[in-house]
Here is the input.
Amino acid sequence: MYVWEISWKEAGPHLKTTVTIKTDSDGDGVAESSDDPVEDATVDFTLSLDSDGDGSYDDDNQSYTGTTNSKGQVEFMWKHAPSGDYKGEVTDLTHSSYD
Ligand SMILES: [Ca+2]
Ligand SMILES: [Ca+2]
Here is the structure.
């Protein structure tokens, strides 16, 4: 399995990110849109903030753990997110059946 997509959305004052996990259905090591979503994957995710614009994402951060749904998606929310640039990183990805 692999990280297919990390998407971003403003939700009022909050920053909502969605991580999508998929299998490599045909085992060729290449991500494809036709690959199946992975349910029940555990995703460790960290959001880091560059609020002063110096290009260094060390001004604040939040870490989350979540489990993907039947669409292979899990949402993480930074409530009342400060303004600035954000970096999202999947720090660990585990599942009972997939590597
Ligand atoms: Ca493939
Ligand atoms: Ca900074």
